[in-house]
Amino acid sequence: MREQWSSRIGFILSSAGAAIGLGAIWKFPYMTGMNGGGAFFLLFILFTLIIGLPLLIAEFIIGRGAQKEAISAYQKLAPNSGWSGIGYWGVAGAFILLSFYGVVGGWVLIYSFLSLFGSVITDNADYQQLFASITGDPLIAISGLGLFLITSVTIVSFGIKDGIEKASKVMMPLLFIFFIVLVIRSVTFDGAAEGLVFFLQPDFSQITAEGMLYALGQSFFALAVGFSVMVTYSSYLGKDVSLPFSAGSVSIMNIFVSLLAGLAIFPVVFSFDLEPTDGPGLLFMVLPEAFAQMPFGEVFLSLFLLLFLFAIFTSAFSMLEIMTAAVTAKRNYSRIKVTWTAGLIVFIAGVPAALSSSALADFTIFGLTVFDASDFLVSNMLLPGGCLLITLFIGLKMDRRLMKQEFSYGNNLTGGSFQLWFQVMRWLVPITIVIVFLNSLGII
């Protein structure tokens, strides 16, 4: 008998944990900083609610409707067809994502250890040099990747209830508590108002076609849709849980965390005359400099790094789970052996990304390092492509009666609500994805 989540809250927290990770805490702040602040945030919210939320509901419906993990779900719902390719697309995408995601997880893990021992904020510290020494040392970068994956694999190997759900029930509430503490401290700085205006006041003159694509990709990345990881998660769910309600809860929590990330970071950046456009290094070079200038700065930096670490781990669990479930569903292999094998393969695949700032710094793919190329491929190609394929599956292939049943279980929503969701998935979502993508390429 397949495992199931022990409770609705366990499923929601685990799903939110899968969604809330690098996208919300690492990528969102620097993408917002580089794309106009408040206007990007507003576009992100709109894309999340209009495009991301319906897609999340769709993945939940596919998973629970089939009661199978990603690959088997499409095979069951559309037997003897090529639609199962969506599941393979998702597993491959999650594999590539985790291979560079784990590199950042390793950086955060190392920073967390250093911060807990008071070794990040020091007299005359050079935070750019510290970041360069961690990312540019092959042994440190690879060790961080390995430690991050070992921890993730250990938890996932215990299964859904005893591994992923238990960890998420601890990590997610702590994440919110730590975040709120940091926000309260951040908004009380002199000069914080300028950062709040930058983050919350839209300036649409700063938005470009590329920025719109990034906002759309951010909504996919932040909700973990497109790679069918939520198909796998919802396959362990009972029929008494409302899928629209659960998807809405995850989406709102994700927007809330993104809001907290902006409120925690931008007031600090502007209060200390730092640059909000510093890109991926924003959290590793800019924030330590800011924390160093405040009382108990090391304590607040440690809190931030720990909440960041919790968020990255809970997302990594979902990526490992889709790979593990895909193999164990086809073969009667030990879950523990499959999870550890998957972790080892991801580690090997992640080494080139880990070396992108050192031994492989001069090796580029279309002008990008292995790390940046992997990020671009996932965020701007594979995720939107996966989302488009899922919308086509919903609109063209999946049985509408089954969809309506799954949409209606556990709630009192009317048939009109289902029709609205279905038409959005059938028309608005795919058209939006295609228009924004073609616009970013300069085709339209």
From TrEMBL:
Membrane-crossing residue ranges in chain numbering: 9-28, 40-62, 83-110, 139-160, 172-192, 212-233, 245-270, 290-317, 338-356, 376-396, 424-443
A Pfam family it matches: SNF
CDD domains tied to this protein: SLC6sbd_Tyt1-Like (cd10336)
Primary location class: membrane
Database matches in SUPFAM superfamilies: SNF-like (SSF161070)
Superkingdom of origin organism: Bacteria
InterPro entries: Na/ntran_symport, SNS_sf, YocR/YhdH-like
Alphabetical UniProt keywords: Membrane, Symport, Transmembrane, Transmembrane helix, Transport
Secretion signal, residue range per the UniProt entry: none
Compartments where found: Membrane
Membrane topology classification: Multi-pass membrane protein
Family: Belongs to the sodium:neurotransmitter symporter (SNF) (TC 2.A.22) family.
Listed NCBIfam families: Na_transp
UniProt protein name: Transporter
